[in-house]
Automatic annotation (TrEMBL):
Keywords: Cell membrane, Membrane, Transmembrane, Transmembrane helix, Transport
Protein name: Transporter
Spans traversing the lipid bilayer: 6-24, 36-54, 66-83, 95-114, 120-144, 178-197, 203-223, 235-255, 261-280, 292-311
Intracellular or extracellular location(s): Cell membrane
GO annotation (BP), single: transmembrane transport
Family per record: Belongs to the auxin efflux carrier (TC 2.A.69) family.
Record-linked Pfam families: Mem_trans (PF03547)
Species: Acidovorax temperans
Membrane topology note: Multi-pass membrane protein
């Protein structure tokens, strides 16, 4: 057993468990979850993302493993569409099968296990993760919705180019990709953050991991699975097991290895990200099933992620 890996995983499980207890005891109420989530997304994560990338030069980034990640995503995503049929329900399940919680769980987990080098690799993925995946998902959802409503309404549909352009704009002007891109641009200037700016950013960034993991535990308390458990479990199995296995198999076939690939495999093993629910809500499909899949996949990931990390650190790094 790799004791440093186990030592890194213990805080992840512990913080989620503490958050769960805090929610059950109503020390943190359901009404406060959105405010805490906004704090993580709008304040803490931009501080960490910008500060980490502000010293990274573009020529040092490795986009090869990121390309493998998106190849595995595309294969699983379109396989789900082919199996389920081209409609909004299939689009929601396909996105849930492939969209990882890279920020709330991925950042603290990768930081603890792989350190700053792992975070740079993860942030390379995050910088284009939402942009590419959510833009593609928007196009698929719009096409599926238009197909379903064809002949049912005389209302004019907006042109596809406007839909795609809006998705790209929203993907860039977002509190996750934007500070990464801003940090990279700052790094290319050769300037160094003055201590009066760097220290507050460091303190805010250090608060992200614990608070994000606590919030995951709290959210589990207020998520109702109910009779959607079977559907949620199918999504969880695809997300936490099939996705990383598919990525690892593709990398093995190409003879790839190393820390960047290990980070990508761990990222693929993460549970369903919350952005999937926003799509389900917007397109009015499978909202309860997607909500349940976020909870079930998070619980399953607490078992599968340690296995994935142990295997990747032993055979990939």
């Amino acid at each position: 057993m790799n004791s440093p890996v186990i030592a890194s995983l213990v805080p992840v499980v512990l913080f989620i468990a503490i958050g769960f207890v805090a929610g059950r005891q109503e020390w943190i109420r359901a009404s406060a979850v959105k405010d805490l989530s906004n704090l993580v997304f709008m304040v803490l994560s931009p501080a960490l993302l910008f500060r980490t990338m502000s010293t990274v030069h573009i020529e040092d980034l490795n986009f090869g493993p990121v390309g493998i990640y998106f190849a595995a995503f595309g294969l699983l995503y379109f396989a789900t569409l082919a199996w389920q049929g081209f409609n909004r329900l299939a689009a929601a399940r396909a996105l849930a099968n492939t969209f990882s919680n890279t920020l709330m769980i991925g950042v603290p987990l990768v930081g603890l296990v792989f350190g700053d080098a792992g975070l740079v690799t993860l942030f390379t993925l995050i910088s284009v993760h939402s942009l590419i995946l959510l833009t593609a998902a928007t196009v698929v959802f719009e096409l599926a919705a238009a197909r379903e409503h064809a002949g049912q309404s005389n209302a004019a549909q907006p042109p596809m180019w406007r839909t795609v352009l809006g998705a790209v704009r929203n993907g860039v002007l977002h509190p996750v990709p934007l500070p990464i891109l801003a940090g990279l641009l700052f790094a290319q200037t050769g300037l160094v953050l003055p201590p009066v700016v760097d220290k507050p950013l460091q303190l805010l960034g250090q608060a992200l991991g614990p608070l994000a993991l606590l919030l995951v535990g709290v959210t589990l308390v207020f998520t109702r699975v109910g009779h959607h458990f079977k559907g949620a479990l199918r999504i969880a199995l695809a997300k936490c097991i099939v996705h990383p296995l598919l990525l690892a198999a593709m990398a093995w076939a190409l003879g790839l290895s190393g820390l960047p690939l290990a980070v990508m495999i761990v990222a693929a093993s993460l549970p369903v990200g919350a952005n999937v629910f926003l799509f389900a809500q917007r397109y009015e499909v499978a909202q309860d099933e997607v909500t349940a899949s976020v909870a079930v996949s998070t619980m399953l990931a607490l078992v599968t992620m340690p296995v994935v990390i142990l295997l990747t650190t032993r055979y990939v790094v």
